[in-house]
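QA checklist item 7 of 12: single-chain prediction sanity check.
[x] sequence parsed
[x] length recorded as 498
[x] structure emitted
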Amino acid sequence: MKVEIDTNKLFSATNDNQYIVWDAMMSSGKTQTIIKYMLEQSTVRFGAKQDKFIYISPYLSEAHRIAGTEAIEGDDLQRPRKVRYDDPQYEDALLLNGGELPTYYNLELEQSQLGFLHPNQKNKDGSKETGFKLLVESGANIVSTHNLFKLLSLANSLDIDLSDYTLVIDEALETLMCDDTFTASELNKFFENNILAMNDDGVSVQFLKENFGRVSGTNVNTTEGTRYEYIADACNKGLVYRFGNRVVTKFDATILTMFKKTIIMTYNYKGSMFDLALKQQGIDPHIEHFGLQVSDIKHLITINEDEKMNSVGVSRNPKTMVKSGKYPVLTATYFKDDAKGTKRVAYPNVNKFFYNKLFNLWCQKEKVDIERRLWTCFKDDAVSIGKGSNKTNRFGASFLAFNKRATNDYAETDHLAFLINVYLQPDFVKASSYNEWHLHRDHYSLNVLIQWIFRSAIRKHQPINLYIPSERMRNLLKGWLNGEVITYATKADDMTEE
């Protein structure tokens, strides 16, 4: 299905607003449209540009696609592969980075004309953060990932001028993140030694650098160059919260104010975590809707309504509850036994249930080829559900994490199983409440489900068969397909598990 986009209207609105959201359903053509926009704003092939761009993508593979580059085969770091072309304009056009030509482009792709460069670690600090700063100072167009950008946002001072750049964010950023800098024991030790301390609000954390050196025995009161550098800066900007033995960091939207313009490309933005986080920090972007409508794809989705297969996800059935309490079925909590070892009543081995049902459905009844299958569950249960005695029927190769976004690698799959009931992590709910972000739990859950579904053949406007045993998740999808809209929470109950 070809989607007609009024690029004149979209580009005009983009040029007129400092902050803008391109809100369009997946496979609506956002990527090709942003490439067209960037090319139109550039005046010279490979040369000095009217507008300079920093493009932030969820994954390195997508960063390569935008840049028109290729990763070295088998390279875990996905560094750009050097491929020689005989274009006489090419070497003259490349910007030097650390005295080397950093990459060669596929010149058959029009986005190669933008000359995007990837930050690398070939600098005195050996860090991509420094590589990013060097590229900014050289005036290059830059392509990188969400992870690097979030690190940059936590720094106390970037000490670089971004005012000539347009920032493009592909998919909404995570605004609350569980930080893994500290183990539980290390976190407690840092508090015991007064390196970390709670602020008066009882939630946010400060980092006392003067005690860091004393306790470590270095007598150097700085975290610079250590693995604590960014968390220390984030603490002292009021961006870190402690909940028990967990640390949660908050995205600092201040970095967006440093750019000439910010373009956010996503779907269902209003009411999302990113929307609420930006609003709380004084940024309320203009939203432009375009591309596919739900009515365009509704007929492509067939939902499995088999009562026996879906019985495991019916919340009103008391047999699906654990003895120790009424946990919502198929949540992360439900998949785990409680601390006392209490087992589920009706499905003591829900993982075996799912393996058997999928094996029967896909391997015996419908005989679906492996490359056409796609399923997800919580990470801890993936091996148990995905294993099987018959290697030709194993499900492991068909697994895709439920929070995977912005990848086209599974566009041939048309038989899908979303085996879980998704809620926002409890620590994120606490942090959202503390920040007065009225996030609706159903908005979050629905967005996760839609993003995952759109990794499949529906991206190519081909029909898919979908198994969603969770009654709640299945009804959320049906509501969306029927035009129901979820935005903000209206009460505290809208943010938590039932």
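[x] summary fact logged: Residues 84-102, 321-325, 338-346 have pLDDT under 50 and may be disordered.
[ ] second reviewer sign-off
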